[in-house]
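Researcher: I'm preparing a figure for a lab meeting and need a structural model of a single chain. I don't have an experimental structure, so a prediction will have to do for now. The sequence is pasted below. Please return the structure as C-alpha cells so I can convert it later.
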Amino acid sequence: MSGPVADTATWPAYGAAPSWPGAPGPGAPLGEPAAVPPPAPVGSPLPPGGYRPPFAPHGPYAGSPPSPPPGRPPRPPKRPKERSPLGAITFSLIFLALGVVAMLDLLDVFPVGAAGYFAAVLATIGLGLLVGTWFGRARWLIALGLVTAAALGIATVAESYDRVRGIDGNVTWAPTDLRDLADRYENNLGDAVLDLRGINFDKQDVQVTLDVNLGNATVVVPPDVDVTTVAEVNAGDASVFGKRSGGLGNRQWESTDTGADGPGGGKLRLYIHVNAGKLEVTR
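Model: Understood. Here is the structure written out cell by cell.
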C-alpha cells in the first residue's frame, strides 16, 4: 500500500538544537537586544496572545496610583483696616478755621471776602493731607480739596471783577463801609464823584485809583484821614486841597495833606488820572 511521502529534506536533523526566529545562533556575534514592546496601560484590552506583564507598574498586581500632592492651604482673610480719625479731625479743624476767620472779619481786624474763607478751608485740608502722609489716611480729603480750590478760584475772579467799578455818564460813588470800597474806579465819558466821607479809615492804610477819560473828577475825603494824592491831568485844571495846577501836558505830581487834626486817623493814598477835564480833591 502506498501513500504520499512527505519531503523530509526540510526537517531538522535529529538531535540538533532548535533555533528561534530572532535569536542569534551559536557563534553569531552579539548585537543589540531585541526590541521589547511597551507594556499596555492598566485597563487596556489584552494583546492578541493574551499575555500582559503581571507586575508593576502596569500589571494587574500593580499598586494604586500615587495620590496627588496636597494643595496649598487657602489664605486667611485680611483683617479689616481700622478707621483713621484723621478725616474727622481735619473736618473739625475746618470749622475751627472758619470760626477764626469770621471772628477776625466781624472785629474788623481786616476785611475778609468769600475768597478768604475758601483759602482758610483749603489751607486746613492741605495740612490734613500733609499729616496723612505719615499718620492715618483720609483720601476723601483730596476730592474735598479739589472742590475747594475750584471755589477759591471762582471767588477770587469774582472779587477781582468787583474791585473795579466802571461806567459811562455822570456817576457818584459813595461807599459807606471799607468792604464796599473798590480798588479802582473808572469813567470813560462824564463827570465822576467819589465820596469817601462815609468810611472810617482809622488804623487803616488804603489805596484807591480813579481814572476819568473825558469829564470832571471830584474826590471828597473824611476830615481826619491823612491823604497822599498822586495826580495827573493831561488837559485841564487840578485843585488838590487848595493847591492848583493847570494847562496842557501837566506832569504827574504828588501832595500830602494830614487834615486839621494833624497826622493820625488812618492813611489814604489816591492815584487820580484825568485825560481831559477838571480834578478836585477836597474834604
